[in-house]
Amino acid sequence: MQLSRLLIVALVFLVLVVTFCSAQTDDNSTTTSGGRKGRKEQKQQQQQQGVDGDDDNDGNDDSDNSRGRRRGGRRRNKAVKEDINVSWKQSVGDGRVVTLSLQAPANKEIIVVESKDKDLGDLGFVASTTTYDYTTDSALVAINPKGRGPCYLTGESLTYQQIMDNAVTLGASVAPHSVENATLVDGTGAALSRDKEDEIFSTNPEIKRACGRGNIVMLEESGDPPKFSGETKEVKVIIYDAELTIVVPAGRKG
Ligand SMILES: *[C@@H]1O[C@H](CO)[C@@H](O)[C@H](O)[C@H]1NC(C)=O
Ligand SMILES: *[C@@H]1O[C@H](CO)[C@@H](O)[C@H](O)[C@H]1NC(C)=O
Ligand SMILES: *[C@@H]1O[C@H](CO)[C@@H](O)[C@H](O)[C@H]1NC(C)=O
User: Separation of 56 CA from ligand 1 center, angstroms?
Assistant: First the structure.
């Protein structure tokens, strides 16, 4: 009795895995046609493809939609099976171009984007490493500008799959990628307490790896009027799909 029930559970699981895998394979076709698209345009494109791109023969017209729902829900992301390392050119206004690189280690739901071009300083940017952690239900992003300042945490609306699909296109392209105009974010908040830090490190060990034991500051949308009344300065970094201008207290290191 118990054994047959187990068998049924195993079978159902297998069917689910197979269904999901074949859905994933189809996803591939959505990636290569994209080209250089801004984030919004890309989203629209994916939504369109979600509507009319369903030609897998599972007899279920709704499959792309349900896949979308699962993506946003509790389902885990699928990590790549082999390391994927790509680099691409990104324009940063005035026709200047810098190189960005991305590493997705095999079997880890992590994407690391490095912005370390030697011309960054000239262009007013700080070199940085940004870690996209998809190991938990909601993606957590750790932005680590070079220097002794804090690590900045924020969320991410793109899924692991969306970034990886586009990264392959980026890596294969010669023309520079351009991103939205610089986004202003508020990094003036106080560093997290050790307890809060430990809480995040226990659920997201990769964030600990990315940030080390330095201070961690949660990024907020920049408000008007600003929450912080003291003198501020700007730390500009380039992350996967944006130029980010982080407003921080003038006295802060890094
Ligand atoms: C998926 O994309 C990769 C990389 O572009 C390619 O090598 C592979 O053949 C594609 N697979 C399918 C099923 O189209
Ligand atoms: C990808 O990059 C990482 C970090 O630089 C490196 O350790 C790894 O060997 C690279 N993998 C491949 C397949 O090139
Ligand atoms: C970026 O900023 C420039 C100058 O302010 C503006 O003309 C342009 O429309 C902006 N582009 C986007 C995509 O917002």
Answer: 16
